[in-house]
Amino acid sequence: MITSSTQDLSIFSLILHASVLVQAVMALLLTLSLVSWTFIFKKWFALRNARAQTERFEHDFWASGNLQTLYQGTIDQRHNAGALARIFESGMREFLKTKEKNMHDASAILDGARRAMRAAFQREMDVLEANLSFLASVGSVSPYIGLFGTVWGIMNSFRGLANVQQATLANVAPGIAEALVATAIGLFAAIPAVIAYNRYAHDIDRLSMRFETFIEEFSNILQRQTHTQP
């Protein structure tokens, strides 16, 4: 009798014998968990590459003595250069283009370069922040979806007691157990998504600060070049 009860309360048995609605809730939560884990790993690799590319370009930028040479090299390897390199390329391209048209208007030259870098900055941030909203949604919604499955399962369990003359724990335990599995799966989907979202949001904020700092520093360099060159 004890062995049969243990088998009946195993996780897989509870899932298989759950009501159709509770099974649908579990399937939805498992799907959300699978998709969120996919995004978690993809975002981890993307941010790791972004940090490495940013550090490499910062080193090349400050080690280079010729912005034209660095600019040309960035154009040649644009897709592999990284976000910060593309921001630099946008600013430098606009600087050179505007300088040809407004040789004596230093403010117009600098404003054009700064606007180009800001636009490139927003594009790069959109790429880095992709799928973060999905992780946030999974982290906030999954527990409630699991709770819905739990409430529905418990309702079915107590409704089944209407046909039983003497209610015992053995009558209600399997139904409550299968209902609680939905909450467990909801937490299983939510917790990694919340942790990943918080971590990646922090990493993206740090990259954003580095990009904005570079824009200001590069703008100062362009300003000095504008005033020193005839």
From TrEMBL:
- The protein's predominant localisation is membrane
Could you name the domain of life of the organism this protein comes from? Bacteria
Key word Heme present in the record? Answer: no
Question: Pfam families per the record?
Answer: MotA_ExbB
What keywords would UniProt list here? Cell cycle, Cell division, Cell inner membrane, Cell membrane, Membrane, Transmembrane, Transmembrane helix
- Where does this polypeptide localize? Cell inner membrane; Cell membrane
Asked if the keyword Signal belongs to this entry, the reply reads no
Q: Which residue ranges does UniProt annotate as crossing the membrane?
A: 20-41, 132-155, 175-197
Q: How does it sit in the membrane?
A: Multi-pass membrane protein
**GO biological-process terms attached to the record:** bacteriocin transport; cell division; protein import
InterPro entries xrefs = ExbB/TolQ_transport, MotA_ExbB_proton_chnl, Tol-Pal_TolQ
Output the Gene Ontology cellular-component terms. Answer: plasma membrane
What this protein is reported to do is described as:
Part of the Tol-Pal system, which plays a role in outer membrane invagination during cell division and is important for maintaining outer membrane integrity.
Subunit info here reads: The Tol-Pal system is composed of five core proteins: the inner membrane proteins TolA, TolQ and TolR, the periplasmic protein TolB and the outer membrane protein Pal. They form a network linking the inner and outer membranes and the peptidoglycan layer.
Q: Which HAMAP family match?
A: TolQ
Q: Give the record's family classification.
A: Belongs to the ExbB/TolQ family.
Q: List, alphabetically, the NCBIfam families matched.
A: tolQ
Task: Specify the protein name.
Answer: Tol-Pal system protein TolQ
